[in-house]
Amino acid sequence: MKAIVIHAAKDLRIEDSAVEAPGPGEVEIRLAAGGICGSDLHYYNHGGFGTVRLKEPMILGHEVAGHVAALGEGVSGLAVGDLVAVSPSRPCGACDYCLKGLANHCFNMRFYGSAMPFPHIQGAFRERLVAKASQCVRADGLTAGEAAMAEPLSVTLHATRRAGEMLGKRVLVTGCGPIGTLSILAARRAGAAEIVAADLSERALGFARTVGADRTINLSEDRDGLVPFSANKGYFDVLYECSGAQPALVAGIQALAPRGVIVQLGLGGEMSLPMMAITAKELDLRGSFRFHEEFAVAVKLMQGGLIDVKPLITHTLPLAEALTAFEIASDKGQSMKTQIAFS
Questions:
Q1: How far, rounded to the nearest angstrom, does the alpha carbon of residue 274 sit from its chain's CA centroid?
Q2: How buried is 250 (Cβ within 10 angstroms: 0-12 exposed, 13-18 middle, 19+ buried)?
């Protein structure tokens, strides 16, 4: 079978890879769709991110869906031909964090396409994928492309849980890429009363409006666009910081009302924080990392028509054009979510 393998920055290859047979409790999946994530792009463009660097060739990809091709011994609840969304979250279930109910912090996590450990955890961008049956959520009624969006949607559902009570809240989203726009959808579904989105790109803000932002602010045209919201100690109750950019975080903190909640999703590197403002306004700064149990919820919300991700899928290219797909995905001027069609 063919797989998409990264060797170094800008060295992406379509290579032959061995086909595995499903063991007990596993299924073989004929991959149909895979979305290119920001971390995939970091490996492609830079050979890693932060201190995480590629040390060996690695199959990329963790936003995937496909059809069940074969069942391993003891698998029930799935049938050959079923469309499934495949969660890349594979915690061990036995470490201290798993036993505390913090599966996303599993000490032995095997998350598809990650160079954090060595040997690296090989990813899911391959024509045939063997996964645990417990990773697979039936996605009948969805397209393969929609099903592959369950992974990034799960990230924002987890962030929304981290934010806490959302009903009637005023929400600011900074950074309107895939995670920012999906955060708008998640916050609205959770009951947010008002959502304002800020970005440097008018195109990105167009997507924010499409998915339901009440107001958008183009900070490249109006650098002080968030300043009015800092009056009277601030306006917003919740900040989803999805850009990973320090100026966005600082501006968002100024716009938060006392006892507001900052949920940091963007991974842009280390930042200096206005600690006096955080202290004086009694703000809560909360990280949000990956997800676990939210994955099945993401599929269910899409199946019920409660969250529509279709407007965010801007490009779909065949496996043979994977390199072109990564170049398009790297160009935020034309791509929101670029996917690869494997079959």
A1: 27
A2: middle
